[in-house]
Amino acid sequence: MTNPIQSSQAAPQATKPQAVPGVPRGETLPQMASDAFVPTRAAGAKVESGRAGSDGQRPGAESPQASGVFAFVSQRVAAALTHRKDIAPSGPAAIPVAAGSGRANADLNLGFAELVARNPDLVWSTQMTPRTEQAIKAFKAGHLGASVKALDLRGLEVGEVRVELKRRGFTVQQAHVVDIHTGQPKRHPGTGRPIPMEIWTHPDGGVVRIKPEGDPLSRYRPQPHLSIAVRYPPKASASDFNNEAFKVDHTGLPLPKWAADARNPHAANSPAGMRFLDDLASRTHVDLPVGRGTALPGRS
Predict the structure, then answer these.
(1) How many CB atoms lie within 10 A of CB 224?
(2) Is 265 exposed, middle or buried (0-12, 13-18, 19+ CB in 10 A)?
(3) Where are the beta strands (DSSP E) in the chain?
(4) What is the C-alpha to C-alpha distance for residues 234 and 298, in angstroms, rounded to an integer?
(5) H or E segment at 115?
(6) Is 285 left (phi over 0), alpha (psi -120 to 50) or beta?
């Protein structure tokens, strides 16, 4: 098959738009998030997309090869829409898109907060585990974690948080902050004691983890803080972080518990990618005011 971009032997002729499966007759293909896409036009037509065409000409310039180029690009876009294996996206912003999801129209230049405001599903990886998907569906349907769906603990000191959790039917288990790689308790660099953590659980799967002394060994959040989550199944041990399905923010929105579950639209080590993960962590953790009641029960 002769590539129309390379062919220069014959005079260009008007190209009739090809029928594309799944696109009603008479309608144009949807605009894709790619500078390469331009609609099919007749020979000599002006480029009106506002972007340079495939031949590098400025917008509005006439090209004797316009018809062939536009037909070729449109056919390639049609192939991408119907057989995505034929044209695989590339680059750090190329993220798998689940069929039928709203993720296809994501603006990859948006930050975490903007994506959440547009569509919370856009911050989730398309490769999440079936267990996580089941937990999210059960949570949204009201069958899981109802105790944390409207739990806003911002601005409360540790003592006030404990009172509120008891009132809502949570029970506490005293634990320690552990190293996720070794499973061993982390020790406070000043005292040498294991860093304390309270795990508050509700029978419906709700979990609140409080680090009243923070995590001095953490580069990201050494200050006292808490996080709200849902474990799945609801009777699973809250001591095992693997049983945590997702975090929950102060509005009751389910969010990824870590970077592996998030759909970061930027390269992870880029400034924009790191800012995305920082914003996710800030949305799923609540800093505790330092003041009265910050010590564990029985400690001064």
Answers:
(1) 19
(2) buried
(3) 171-176, 196-201, 206-211, 225-231, 244-248, 254-255, 285-287
(4) 30
(5) helix 112-118
(6) beta
Measure the CA–CA gap between 263 and 184, rounded to whole angstroms.
30
Digitized pLDDT (tens) for each residue of the chain, 300 residues in all: 444 434 334 444 444 444 444 444 444 333 333 332 223 333 333 333 333 333 333 333 333 343 343 333 334 434 333 333 332 333 333 333 333 334 434 455 788 999 999 999 999 999 999 999 999 999 999 999 999 999 999 999 999 999 999 999 999 999 999 998 898 999 999 999 999 999 999 999 999 999 999 999 999 899 999 999 999 999 999 999 999 999 999 999 999 999 999 999 999 899 999 999 999 999 999 999 986 544 444 333
Q: Can you tell me the distance from the alpha carbon of 80 to that of 65, in angstroms, rounded to the nearest whole number?
A: 23
The answer to whether 91 and 83 are in contact (CB under 8 A) is no
Specify whether the CB–CB gap between 270 and 92 falls below 8 A. yes
Query: CA–CA separation, 268 vs 195, rounded Å?
Result: 29
**Cα–Cα distance list, 11 to 45, 53, 87 (Å):** 15, 19, 29
Q: Are strands 171-176 and 285-287 parallel, antiparallel or unpaired?
A: unpaired
Structure tokens at 45: 């037509």
Structure tokens at 203: 């029978």
Q: Report the predicted TM-score, pTM, of the whole model to 2 decimal places.
A: 0.63
Residue 110, amino acid: L
**Contact of 222 with 208, CB cutoff 8 Å:** no
Let me know: does 214 contact 221? Beta carbons within 8 Å: yes
Q: Which residue, among 192, 191, 207, 202, has the nearest Cα to 240 in the 3D structure? A: 207
Phi, psi of 15 (to 5 degrees): -105, 125
Cα separation, 108 vs 16, whole angstroms: 33
Q: How far apart are CA 218 and CA 37, in angstroms?
A: 46
Which segments of 79-170 are extended strands (E)?
none
